[in-house]
Amino acid sequence: MSVSWWVWALLMLAIGVMLAIDLFLHRDNHVIGFREAATWSGIWIAAGLLFGVVLWAWQGGDVAGTYFAGYLIEKALSIDNVFVFAMIFAYFGVPAAYQHKVLFWGVIGALVFRFVFIFVGAELLETFFWTAYLFGAFLIVTAYKMAFRHGEQTPPDRNPVVRLVRRLVPTDPAYHGDRFFTRINGRRVATLLFVVLIAVETTDLIFAIDSVAAILAITTSTFIVWTANAFAILGLRSLYFCLAGLLRRFVHLHYGLAVLLAFAGVKLILSETPVGKLPIPVTLGVIVATIAVSIAWSLRSTSAHPKTPEPSQRP
Questions:
Q1: What SS3 class is residue 188?
Q2: Of 287, 212, 276, 221, the residue nearest 59 (C-alpha)
Q3: Chain centroid, CA 67 distance in Å
Q4: Are 208 and 119 in contact (CB under 8 A)?
Q5: Distance of alpha carbon 200 from alpha carbon 180, whole angstroms
Q6: What are phi and psi of 101, to 5 degrees?
């Protein structure tokens, strides 16, 4: 599917307007409650679904079905982002009022990372058929790690990029309101909030590689892949504040996400064999069923004995 430059321009303008509205409404750094987060999550999800309806009317059911499949898998994988963001915020003891600002700029970085990866990945798949086998194998290995090594997470302050930033940029190990930089004794230094932002950005960079590879297994249309990623990522902040208190109940969700990644890997490999690409209805069915089963399994397992959240840490 190819689109004109003005369609891309309109899309970028619409995303920019939505981000500007979100930033304006949260300029006072207030603590976001569940009701507000749920409302905004509903708005972002409605926007994503509405775009799919527009695609249906514009390009037909096959294109819209491909978009919805990509949107669902990206939305599901973004829940794993929320798990890690919650761990980072707890580890660094980030005040609730400043978390939205970190996530806002984190989303900006996520959109940029994905924009680059999408075009590079799509070009590789279109030019070199054998890259489908590499991407597919990568997704299967990632699925294995997610299923069986999900709890093996590196403490945020041991992140190599975070450590490099602390070494290169003068950093004050404290928060100074919502500022990323401040002046101390006339010297400009980074605040702890900037370190948190770097931790979030580098973590999302890793997630971007996984998620873009997964959606490229569905389609190599850069327009579909980008829009599915964009609309899924735009609601990430609201999703975080909606699910932050419920994450301890999604104890089996990572198995479902692992299944989705493995499915995407196998699908990508099969696309370069006589089997060819799997039908979109089959892909949609697998995605919906996997997400539903893993969430239902998690909620049932924790309904009687919900886990108590671990106390936060601070370096």
A1: strand
A2: 221
A3: 16
A4: no
A5: 14
A6: -65, -40
Tell me the pLDDT of the chain (315 aa) as tens digits. Answer: 667 878 888 888 888 888 787 777 766 677 777 788 888 888 889 999 999 999 999 999 899 999 999 999 888 888 777 878 888 888 888 888 888 889 888 888 888 888 888 888 888 877 877 888 888 898 898 888 888 866 566 666 676 778 888 888 888 888 888 899 999 888 899 998 999 999 888 888 877 888 888 888 888 888 999 899 889 888 888 888 887 766 677 878 888 888 988 988 898 888 888 887 788 888 888 888 998 898 899 888 887 655 544 444 444
Residue 173 near residue 155, CB atoms below 8 Å: no
DSSP H or E stretch at residue 115: helix 96-127
DSSP string, 139-191: HHHHHHHHHHSTT----GGG-HHHHHHHHHS-B-SS--TT-SEEEETTEEEE-
> Residues 17-63: pLDDT tens digits?
887 877 777 666 777 777 888 888 888 899 999 999 999 999 998 99
Is residue 175 within 8 Å of 193, Cβ to Cβ?
Answer: yes
End-to-end CA distance of the chain: 49
Q: What is the pLDDT of residues 197-213, one digit of tens each?
A: 998 888 888 778 888 88
Tokens 């190819």 correspond to 2
CA distance 32 to 34: 7
Distances, alpha carbon 19 to alpha carbons 75, 111, 230, 243, 250, in Å: 18, 11, 11, 21, 29
The conformational region for residue 185 under phi > 0 = left, psi -120 to 50 = alpha, else beta, is left
**Closest-CA residue to 196 (of 117, 86, 108):** 86
Confirm if 19 and 108 have CB atoms less than 8 A apart: yes
DSSP H helices in 26-59: 34-59
Instruction: Dig out the tokens for 288 from the structure.
Output: 């919906």
Query: Residue 227 in contact with residue 285, Cβ under 8 Å?
Result: no
Tokens encoding 163 = 């450590």
- Quick one: which of 75, 112, 96, 115 has its CA closest to 201? 112
Can you tell me which residue has the tokens 């597919």? 136
